[in-house]
Specification:
226 residues; alpha/beta; four-stranded antiparallel beta sheet
Length: 226
């Protein structure tokens, strides 16, 4: 699992990163709230461990911004790691969207146990799909299905990324540039007709009317029809 650790104390960060790496997780560490927001905007994570007292942008702002992001990014599990042990601070963190709250100093074994508990709750509660009533995208399996034919349809990585961007905001028109930002990793150079090619491919797989072109503006899928 890819984990984002947002912690400005280097000793704590090193200990947490080492322990989670031993658990076969891929841990990326940043020490600044602005860096955290940047990483969350360009990468998908399975978990976020978030300190509150951060330079640049504080942890509560990072958390609120994350929870306001489009799906599925806004559903990533978050545990707050902080020295703020007052009851109101814990309540504020949970109300802002944290899944759990761990006060420093803590034992790594308790952190890992709490992460497992959060994931169990998430797996029981979250519907791992995006849909507008006509097209359903399985976030876990990276497959799509149409309303009249529920058989899963395999998608390439970029087909999935493009369709997920559209289904996260049914009815919204997304420009070519915004779609390129979703289908390419940072540092990759977009090919000139990549978006058009992927939309053509998705229409062949899912139906010619599932993705609509709004001339001069971009593409969209219809709002929910259920």
């Amino acid at each position: 699992m890819r984990i984002l650790l947002v912690e400005d104390d280097p000793l704590i960060a090193e200990a947490v990163k080492a322990s989670l790496s031993d658990e076969t997780h891929a841990v990326e560490h940043v020490a600044d709230g602005r860096d955290a927001l940047m990483m969350l905007s360009v990468q998908e994570y399975g978990f976020v461990l978030l300190d509150l007292g951060l330079p640049g942008v504080d942890g509560m702002t990072v958390l609120r911004t994350l929870r306001q992001a489009p799906a599925p990014k806004n559903a990533v599990p978050v545990i707050i790691l902080t020295a703020r042990d007052a009851l109101q601070a814990r309540l504020d963190g949970l109300d802002a969207g944290a899944d759990d709250y761990l006060v420093k100093p803590f034992h790594i074994s308790e952190l890992i146990a709490r992460m497992r508990a959060v994931l169990r709750r998430k797996n029981q509660a979250v519907d791992n799909t995006l849909t507008n009533g006509t097209i359903t995208l399985d976030i876990q399996d990276k497959t799509a299905a149409v309303k009249d034919n529920p058989k899963p349809i395999a998608l390439s990585r970029r087909e999935y990324a493009l369709l997920a961007a559209l289904l996260a905001r049914p009815g919204a028109i997304l420009s070519k540039r915004s779609l390129e930002e979703r289908i390419y990793e940072p540092g990759e150079e977009p090919e000139s007709n990549a978006v058009e090619y992927l939309i053509h491919s998705l229409r062949k797989k899912l139906g010619p009317q599932v993705i609509k072109n709004v001339r001069g503006l971009g593409w969209m899928v219809d709002k929910s029809s259920h």
